[in-house]
Amino acid sequence: xxxxxxAVSSLRQxxxxxxxxxxxxxxxxxxxxxxxxxxxxxxxxxxxYPERFxxxxxxxxxxxxxxxxxxxxxxxxxFSTFAVFASGRAWDQVRCSVAHPNLNVKIVATxxxxxxxxxxxxxQALEDISLMRSLPNMKVIIPADSxxxxxxxxxxxxxxxxxxxxxxxxxxPEIFNAKDYDFKPEARVLVPGKDLTIATYGxxxxxxxxxxxxxxxxxxxxxxxxxxxxKPLDESTIIESVKKTGVIMTVENHxxxxxxxxxxxxxxxEKLPLPVRRVGVRDEFGQSGEYSELMKKYGLVAEKFMDxxxxxxxxxxxxx
Amino acid sequence: MTEIKKLTNGxxxxxxxxxxxxxxxxxxxIHNAKSGHPGGNLSALDLMLVLYKHIxxxxxEWDCSPEWDKRDRFVLxxxxxxxxxxxxxxxxxxxxEDELMTFRKxxxxxxxxxxCNCAPGVEIPSGSLGQGLSMANGIALSLKLDKNxxxxxxxxGDGELQEGQVWEAAMSAAHYRLNNVIAIIDRNRLQIxxxxxxxxxxxxxxxxxxxxxxxxxxxxxxxxxxxYGAYRxxxxxxxxxxxxxxxxxxxIKGKGVSFMEHNAGWHGKPTKQEEFIKAVEELRGKC
Lengths: 320, 287
Ligand SMILES: Cc1ncc(C[n+]2csc(CCOP(=O)(O)OP(=O)(O)O)c2C)c(N)n1
Prior knowledge:
By secondary structure, chain A is of the alpha/beta class.
């Protein structure tokens, strides 16, 4: 399933291209944007099917409500803008007009997390997964590379109900092999291990894989799990892994409040109370900077969170 | 109505020079950061420059002088024009010019969009469009409660007017008779995805504001005489009437650099080295 092709590609472009394919296959698909069609890459759909594309201008709340009306009338409506505006600005519209009536609206939000970079705090969604995860009916998926993105977009297009999909701004190394990658809404063990579990999604999957390599050199065997679907969480895969390893670390380009770290804590505290360490942004806003610098600053690179992994293994030893 | 003072020829000449100098600085900051918004900074700069140089009561001893409370407030709702604001603030000595080149770099006070604990002179954070007018109204209400005669100037983008909150705030300002609010619209007719009228039409714009209970002035936003005249007239109106005032300033996105002018493609991308050199040459040729 994993690839070693070393290619780097754009998740947003993969999204735009997949939308165009889906638009051909399914005339019921409509797309809305809010003055960011180039950045989100919905512009590809606009060019191919101008009559099924609606630029709502800089009016995210209006866009979400309009998408809901379209979905209510039988369309499958994709809406894209930056993650911070899709989840935050339009939250009540998502809650009341989309999630409550359980409508077929697919919010594909780009530019999630600190990797937005220089635009700074106002544009860095660090709470979006938390906000979306807390809404009944809403499902939340974050692909890690362009291969997974294509598969996820196809999956949400054919699956009824509201979805929140978050894509990253920078191009990412390809992790999955396009030939045999088949998306299922579950968590997957990418690297088996026995000393600790590292659960992650999105941009930090590559970092977690790197971290596992570094730990191996220190004689520690880490199990790396990709968890693209934050909700509904694939609890059994996580529980099974932690039963084996005894400790788990979550890593995410998101606040430690309300994201995967919280979801894992919620599950384990009820079903298998064992130590958890959450790596993410710690209850603060982001800031301007080059994205790779910000990844370091907020501890989201392997070199940084390796220390958390080692500390977690120490905790386990002490408990034994 | 009170007679309106005019700028002298010398003052206009000085503003022209200064504007080109600051435009160059803006572009240098964006070039150096490898990120930012050339178009909407260049369209807004002249309006901010005249405001700070000739209109506002200022206090550059930020938050540490007894005079501070009396300052007129400036709210930049279109937060992506931060580079222009920072340049004008440095020109007015709120902070040193050296700091400008830290724009958008890790740890800087000059955040990509005006943030909290930002540089002196920056009143409120912005970057998420459509929120500034409501905050300006809140500041204006507080000034009235405190019997403080200071004015609140607030700058909006035209695309930004597509946000519903702007019109909620427009209604609030008229309802609460906030004659101490003076809004400035940078009407460059472009947003990111193209012309405002193609993306989601704003016209008839002046009529909309009038219907919402505002006094409306329309000017060329790069003509210093007109800008100055409009600010003075707006202040007169605000002293004599109970309605808020909006200045619709017709501007050019990318003003001053021929290949950027009227081009939505220059909304949010930094210059390549050759482009930067060309832009600087053009601006210097105008000094
Ligand atoms: C709520 C919100 N939605 C979207 C954006 C992304 N965005 C930044 S600038 C911009 C276009 C602004 O157009 P306009 O107000 O006309 O500004 P100008 O053309 O003067 O730069 C958009 C959509 C944002 N910053 N905030």
